Amino acid sequence: MNDVVNSSPKAAHVQAAGVSLTGLRKSYGSNEVLKGINLDVAPGEVVCLIGPSGSGKSTLLRCVNLLEQPNEGTVHVGGFEATHPDVDIDRMRRKVGMVFQQFNLFPHLNALQNCTVAQTKVLKRSQAEADKVAQANLDRVGLGHLADRYPDQLSGGQQQRVAIARALSMDPELMLFDEPTSALDPETVGDVLSVMRNLAKEGMTMLVVTHEMGFAREVADRVVFMDGGVVVEEGSAEQVISAPTQDRTKEFLRRVLDPTHIDLS
Amino acid sequence: MAMTATQRARVSLNVQAGIFIVAVAALILATDWETIGASVFNFGKIGPMFPDIFLVGLTNTLVYTFLGFIVGLSGGLLLALMKLSSFPLYRWIATGYIEFFRGIPALLVFIAFGYGVPLAFGVSWNVTVVVMVSLGMVAAAYIAETLRAGLQAVPKGQLEAARSLGMPQWRAMVTIIIPQAFKIVLPPLTNEVILLTKDSSLIYVLGLTASQYELTKFGRDGISSLGAGLTPLLVAGALYLVITIPLSLLARKFESRSARTKR
Ligand SMILES: Nc1ncnc2c1ncn2[C@@H]1O[C@H](COP(=O)(O)OP(=O)(O)O)[C@@H](O)[C@H]1O
Ligand SMILES: [Mg+2]
Questions:
Q1: What value of ipTM does the predicted structure carry?
Q2: Is the C-beta atom of A58 inside 6 A of ligand 1?
Q3: Tens digit of each residue's pLDDT, chain A (265 residues)
Q4: A66 near A75, Cβ under 8 Å?
Q5: Cβ of residue A106 closer than 8 Å to a chain B Cβ
Q6: Which of A148, A197, B45, B110 is the most exposed place for a label (fewest CB within 10 A)?
Q7: Does the beta carbon of B166 lie under 8 angstroms from any beta carbon of chain A?
Q8: CA distance B150 to chain A (A)
């Protein structure tokens, strides 16, 4: 905690994109969920976070944009020291797009409005400009023709793609994905993954919690395996998924890669 | 002779219907229709009530209810947000207010604002202000609880999604959470309006001039001036139903619509 207090206010605006977590700890009551996490994501890098249910992956992701306040440690993101006491959290969050497992689209707004509301209210863009940006991003996720549909008129996979377009409409420097395909019917998973694949190709910095090992293998520059609130193993997808060195990693992969195993998490 | 369950149920229903018919018949026979006719259904003498019962009584009831509702809705929203605040002092104030105003008769509030406050502070409020404040402050307590439940019924992920797009808390509430909560609370809120419509009659405790009469007061006035017994009250009662039954139907419509779609 001390180094946070001692750093100068200027430190809140250090110029460096990407994410840097140091000594991150988070507890809920007496339950310590993150036990000192160090993790860097370089600008343009795609990092996949894997690990069993309850290992703290969501909590880690939510600490990056401060949906959860860490108890200890520092978070640097998109040039901001997010954990600095004087940081403008809302300004920081504009640079960080987040995609949730349950989509969380705004049900009272149609797809286009979902993508424009924060542009006009937060970025103060004109309605015309916001509409243009939103339409371009809906086109980008392949849903330009459904711009006037409401969330309850879209399939799960379509909703998740709108959610991605909504985040992209804010021109983020970093995208966080929390199991974006876990709540989807199998036949719509592919569309969402291919949108994410294109995003990675275009050079977006991405931190992705996923159980899709195929996606991780193909897209991730780095894979991080977490268990029990610590990073157990990290390296290239090849290293971590195909040739893990830690027993806990091997055990986890054996379970998720076994097609007969039903993972209820 | 054994009966099936359906047969038994049918017999039981017939017995109940029979008892009901006998009871109604006994009541009709025992009633002194002449007296009732003169004191309750005496429509011959109520001509002078019209058209003022519409122009004054019904209009004032609607105006008082509307004003009370506007104050109640604004106050209720403020209290609901205070009650959900992470700042304990706000929660305590809101809880204290809600428990107090839900716990005392609305009549006492009317007396307090009609006589107590003007006396204590040496001000003289006109009747409209007293109704607006009294009705509004009581309504705020009930509406606050309705709105709080509605706000809490909006999934937590909505606020998180809004905040993660960089919206400050107030903006997320105004643009994302409150519009959704309002759709959830539309049916119970309509019921609050029905209660308010009826509570607006409590204004009778204040000294009113004829132009300030609402339905109940108008009806009571008719009792003493027309010599038609309670008939004027019957008319006033019917006009309450003209307001409340459509509201009731509206509430039911909102309910079935929100059950069909979240929009
Ligand atoms: N808001 C919360 N309050 C209390 N405990 C929580 C909360 N969120 C998560 N946890 C606990 O933290 C642990 C890690 O959760 P989570 O980060 O969601 O794991 P994962 O995403 O890897 O499945 C779990 O034991 C969970 O019960
Ligand atoms: Mg999770």
A1: 0.90
A2: yes
A3: 344 433 333 333 333 468 999 999 999 999 999 999 999 999 999 999 999 999 999 999 999 999 999 999 999 998 889 999 999 999 999 999 999 999 999 999 999 999 999 999 999 999 999 999 999 999 999 999 999 999 999 999 999 999 999 999 999 999 999 999 999 999 999 999 999 999 999 999 999 999 999 999 999 999 999 999 999 999 999 999 999 999 999 999 998 887 665 555 4
A4: yes
A5: yes
A6: A148
A7: yes
A8: 15
